[in-house]
Amino acid sequence: MRVPNVNIDVEHLETLLAIVDAGSFDDASIDLGITPSAVSQRIKALENRMGAILVVRSRPVVPTEQGYKVLRYARQMSLLSAEFARELAADKPLSIALGVNSDSLSTWFSPVFEQLAEIDDLSVEILRTDENRGLELLRTGRVSAVVTATPEPLQGCISKKLGAMRYRAAASPRIIKRYLHHKTPEELAKTPMVVFDREDPLQYDMLERVAGAGSRPSGAVHHIPDSLKYVSAVEAGMGWGMIPELQLPQATGIQTIHDQWFADVPLYLQRWAVDSSLLNKIDGILVTAARRSGLHLIA
Taking the CA atoms of the chain, what radius of gyration do you get in angstroms? Predict the structure, then answer.
């Protein structure tokens, strides 16, 4: 997409945002208070200006690869415009979306909510995402910042290390008594295992590390895609799992299996590289919360 010195109509960018968020041209027209024909004309004009098709006319509407680039720019402009408008009129509300992995939400993130609650007229949307997959939300402009395990910043973004979350192999006393008499790697491979979801490699990586490359579980494997219920499933005796060290004090019904059976998952904050006072404030809030929880102590 070759767009040298392009001046983009802000109204057209707002229309693109409305279409993607609403899912269709008709629904966007209702949100914008204009006719569907006017919505179509604005998008056609924007596409002509950019020299590329920006959305697939399906239901819901899906941005093209080039459309995602423009969409991210549109969201950045929307945030900066809202901040500027707020400087002129104190009652102008702001909104922001953040991508956060489930284990962070259930452990060190509570102080973040307390700080966000002190920002007047701010609407916050938290999108729960895996720390290994959240960058797609940032790349497409769906969120302004994301907690991720990837250190290399996306183009147009900055990356800052928060620390690391330590996970320990743990199980209920019943599971340990039944399957892990000697707590050997061979016994671990035969013990039922609890995994967050099918995309989660943590337990499999741990098993390979202690039992050797290529080692796979030979017992039952359960999938529980919720951080709190995941711990409950391990406490109930469904199998062993990797529990965040920050959750262990509250998980009274489980025990760590072996002192050396742990894994550290690095966490980084990636955010748009724009001069936004709101993003700068949220950046500071997350870094402070991570530090106070002790994430920075695990390099």
Answer: 23
